[in-house]
Design brief:
By secondary structure, chain A is mostly helical. Chain A is built from nine helices and no strands. The mean pLDDT of chain A is about 90. Chain B has a single domain, classed as MetI-like (MetI-like fold). Classes of the chains: A mainly alpha, B mainly alpha. The interface between A and B is large, with 43 and 37 residues.
């Protein structure tokens, strides 16, 4: 079929169809590259955000004043539209992938700090008292009792953060580092439907894969909850 | 970075940037108008549906998952797909995209607000002889209002952000100042546009915070 039968006059590329297997076949390198860069940007952002959110939440959890300040700051960041946030970082970090990653970290941060604080606060007081009565110090209480009990809440926050981050990465196209968003932007400018739809579907697929992986990770991290509806 | 704040300041001080259809007031008016239209239309669709689903207790999975699905779909992708579709590069494709992203938070919050009304309050209303419609209007809706308003607030912030991204496609609004700045390679204009967008979002958010705290003050305190 491919070869002599393939003419420029009639195929899904020349018809500019939304769904075009020929596009996926002929531009697979480009698609794989964009997907890999999308995954790298999103993954880095979520991991860095989590690594920052945990110590920040632990630092402010016993001080209502600092806690309010941090949560207020996070709320302000969350309100700023993504495009504006990315653009406001450009004078500092240039038109680089780093700019996109920093912007995404700031957004994911606001979700994760909250999740960690809520997760820790939800540990029942009598559980804490029992551990204290058994002679647990603060550090051991945190590691052995509070952290495992906070895992489900933190994981719920992590899922929201990961899915939003994967979607938001596309906006990085404004500075040329949007992963699959770059293909969507290029497809817009050249009115190339297959490129736009394929990249968009891959984005959604990445978000679903990220979400399912985190569900799997949670099952591994909380074996005692398995079988709980 | 050198001298950029001064250049941004100069951009704001230049009267040319405040006049005509590309000026700040015109672009801000477009942004606000588009946001209000999208959020208004989304409320018309989502509030009655959320109230009905919450009242009947049906479709909870749908009402809640619509937000989760909405989160996974990139706004930028939907804007571009609609622009390359039958509506073309018009304001209508932008408006449809904005409404699509404003519906989920309003629908979910309205549904949860009604569904989580204390069953005792509902039973008391029924015991007083209220009809289903009266229960909805006089008990469930007032109790669901704070959450409903929070949903509209979320939707508004989301729409302001999405309307900014729409400028990359064909949309009007303050985002155009940013994209035009990129076209002119004028960093000061790009930053000025971003500051305007951020300012608009923060002002809108603050307006909702004040509105809902005023609404709370007028209400009878809930019994714990």
């Amino acid at each position: 079929m491919v070869g002599h039968g393939l003419t420029l006059t009639d195929n899904c590329l020349t018809r500019n169809d939304w769904v075009c297997p020929l596009y996926v076949r002929t531009r697979s390198t480009e698609l794989v590259e964009a997907t890999v860069s999308h995954v790298l940007i999103s993954f880095t952002a979520v991991v860095v955000a989590l690594l920052l959110a945990i110590p920040l939440a632990l630092a402010v959890r016993r001080s209502p004043r600092w806690r309010r300040t941090l949560e207020g700051g996070a709320a302000v960041v969350y309100t700023i539209p993504s495009l504006a946030l990315f653009v406001l970082l450009v004078p500092f970090t240039g038109l680089s992938a780093l700019t996109v990653v920093i912007g995404l970290v700031l957004y994911a941060q606001t979700i994760l700090i909250r999740a960690v604080l809520v997760g820790l606060a939800a540990v029942p007081a009598d559980v804490r008292d029992a551990a204290a009565g058994m002679g647990y110090g603060r550090g051991r209480l945190l590691l052995v009792v509070e952290a495992p009990l906070a895992v489900p809440t933190v994981m719920a926050g992590l899922r929201v953060a990961a899915v939003s981050t994967v979607a938001l990465t596309t906006v990085g196209a404004i500075i040329g580092h949007g992963g699959l968003g770059d293909l969507i932007y290029a497809g817009l400018r050249s009115v190339f439907r297959a490129e736009v739809l394929t990249a968009s579907l891959l984005c959604v697929l990445l978000a679903v894969v990220a979400d399912l992986s985190l569900v799997g990770l949670q099952r591994v991290l909380t074996p005692w909850r398995r079988g709980v509806g | 970075m050198d001298g950029l704040p001064a250049q941004v300041w100069a951009w704001f001080a230049d009267p040319q940037n405040w006049a005509g259809p590309d000026g700040v007031p015109a672009r801000a008016a477009e942004h606000v108008g588009l946001t209000a239209a999208a959020v208004g239309l989304a409320c018309l669709l989502a509030v009655p549906l959320g109230l009905w689903l919450g009242h009947t207790g049906r479709g909870g999975t749908l009402a809640i998952n619509v937000t989760n699905v909405g989160r996974a779909v990139p706004t930028f992708a939907v804007l571009v797909i609609l622009a390359l579709g039958p509506l073309g590069l018009s304001i209508w494709s932008t408006l449809v995209a904005l409404v699509l992203f404003a519906v989920p938070p309003i629908l979910t919050n309205t549904y949860v607000g009604v569904a989580e009304v204390d069953p005792d309050a509902r039973a008391a209303a029924v015991g007083m002889g209220m009809s289903g419609r009266q229960v909805l209007a006089r008990v469930e809706l007032p109790l669901a209002t704070p959450l409903l308003v929070a949903g509209v607030q979320l939707a508004t912030i989301q729409v302001i952000a999405t309307a900014t991204i729409a400028a990359l496609v064909a949309g009007p609004g303050l985002g155009r100042i940013i994209t035009a700045g990129f076209g002119l390679q004028d960093e000061a204009q790009v930053v000025a546009g971003a500051l305007l967008v951020a300012g608009l979002a923060l002002v809108a958010d603050l307006a909702f915070v004040r509105m809902s705290s005023r609404a709370r003050r007028g209400r009878v305190p809930a019994v714990e």
